[in-house]
Amino acid sequence: MFATARRRLLVDRLAALAIRVGGLAVIASILAILAFLLVEIAPVLRAARVAPGPSLAIPGAAPRALLVDEHRSHAVVLGSDGVLRAVRLADGAVVAERELVSRPSAAAVDPAGGALAAAGDDGAVVVAPISFPVSFADGARSVAVSIGDPVRLEVTEPGDAIGALALQAGDTTRVAAALGDGRVALARREANRNLFTGEVSETRERRLLQAPAPVAALALGPEGRELYAGTRDGRLLRWDLASPAAQPIEESSAGGASVDALALLIGGRSLVVGQADGSLSIWFEVPQAQGSALTRIRDFPRYPAPIERITPSARNRSFLVATRPGASGAAELGLHHSTSGRTLWRGAVGAGTVEALAFAPRGDGALSASEGRLTPLSIESPHPEISLGALFGKVWYEGAPAPAWVWQSSSGDDAFEPKLSLVPLVFGTLKGTCYALLLAIPLGVLGAMYTSQFMHPSLQRWVKPSVEVMAALPSVVLGFLAALWLAPRLERFFPALLLMGFAVPAAAIAAGGFWTRALPRRLTARLPAGSEIAVVAAAIAAATTGCLALSARLEDAVFGGSFPAWLERSLGVAYDQRNAVVVGIGMGFAVIPILFAIAEDAFSNVPADLAAGSLALGANRWQTVVRVVLPTASPGIFSAVMIGFGRAVGETMIVLMATGNTPILDWSPFNGFRTLSANIAVEIPEAPQGGTLYRTLFIAALLLFAMTFAVNTAAEAVRHRLRRRYARL
């Protein structure tokens, strides 16, 4: 016996140790998941870094414009003497040069088209195409510089001073030049190649536009469809170049200070405006009742000196800003992002005026020319699109009529503006959960109450295991059935579903009244306890069948023959076949088994002497269940509801298959939604590892983790409070 006792004690200790180890392993696993999420999100929290490299002297005259290759190995510099020089950045050596004009009065760069332009004093603008061919030999990369034959465009008459200049290069070369008397001169050259003969013909065009004030800055819209101008008295002008009219079609006030710098970001819709008072703002066209209007969308922190140069990135909506030298004698540079509204970095590089500024095509660096020296800048800003405002606040996206919460992570256009608001996903998660619990809580809790308190034990042995087996159904099967079987039938029989909301409860109540009042007591007393379930089930089946049979007639009589059409016509609400009702039913059936099982255990674990005491004091069975058993079991029922909530929040496949998966903010039961978990499942296969979308999905996962943790923690606190309140003394 002593050996047996020792063996039992050893087994007990081993079991206790195993339980502790298992519990600690669970906690460690949760902490490891949290740590992994935080590690993946950490790069988003890092500030952008702009590090200047060793500067080198620029050969020749002071620079007027810069162009750099994507590998940042060479730069083409247009000097104030009108000569183009290709400089190798490793040692500052000039590898090629070509003269454009004698004394350039203005210069412009088109990095996307690969061209530099210079305006001479003879009324012409000379455009030089530039490319950086790459070759590989013995595994080593070699970058060369090719300066093509210049194209001369007669813009205005000799003697007219050209100020600001804008350039678009390619098969069609466009130049816009601001003249000193408030006119803007346009010149266009289009080259057409015959595919059969190889002959090249060209078309040239020249025209003049009239501005209401002297123009200080110009920007050409995509494909030369529009021209933007900033005036010295603080106005923004817009011309529709498809129209023959010389006057601008739109004029907006930018605040009074001279508009000295303009730049269009990638996509050609957002206009960056820099002014003489240091103001920096984003503008774009906003749809109006009639046409559209150029609108000031957001402002960045003001600079202490006038803004002279703005250079956009070719990769995203980031841009560099350079000011005039301030009190310290150095110009200030700034790196900003339009959509997120973030100021990523501000600082000074070198001394004196920034004479030219170029953004590398890959967005990972830039070149600044100041005081006759070139300073390379290394830029590390991997996730400029992400900010708290962009993730959770309303953002005014390009072309939208107003700020909004929008999730749209990708598009077929490289110039697409990512929209990464998590609010529609959180809303969709809560919406789907609410619709699922609307079905699951009444059926699960009331079903558990009836099974444990009223059903005959012989039936309990069949019902409870059958409901629990439902939990083994894969969610992909439920999603498949909801999407391909339930959704089309629900669209066809939706009036019947509305009718069932009234007919089925009425039938169940009528069946109960029939059992207790219409049938002789001598007959019901002889039947086993719980036999009334057969009568109630038959009544519910008959009511359901009747509603389905009356669906077509009800639809014809009340909804004009088509419920979806009536909904659209009368309420302006579109009916999507895969909607929240379908998901609520499908996900409700996924939640019911676990909710039923836990709630039934809570009812069954109420001590029998409590119910016996209530019955002995004269209460009937229903009064005993409602006033004694239900309050005592309430902690367990609350836990069941919260576990069901967590199950619904984390559901993926049913939502993915049974909804339109549209991230919209609408409580209507007749349209779809997108949840956090479904969004992760949809987007993660297409998200480049380490990219902005990839990190944003991990933020969504952390948010889902936090929501579940917060709900479970609150549920546990409430459960303990209820347990203390209803604990037996």
Provide a short characterization of the protein structure.
The protein has 729 residues and is α+β, with helices and mostly antiparallel strands. Strand 5 and strand 6 form a beta hairpin.
Key attributes of the depicted protein:
2 domains, Methylamine Dehydrogenase, Chain H, alpha+beta, 5-stranded antiparallel β-sheet
Explain the overall architecture:
- The chain has 14 helices and 34 strands.
- It has 729 residues and is an alpha+beta fold.
- It folds into 2 domains: 49-135 and 159-408, YVTN repeat-like/Quinoprotein amine dehydrogenase (Methylamine Dehydrogenase, Chain H, 7 Propeller); 422-726, MetI-like (MetI-like fold, Orthogonal Bundle), CATH 1.10.3720.
- The mean pLDDT is 87.
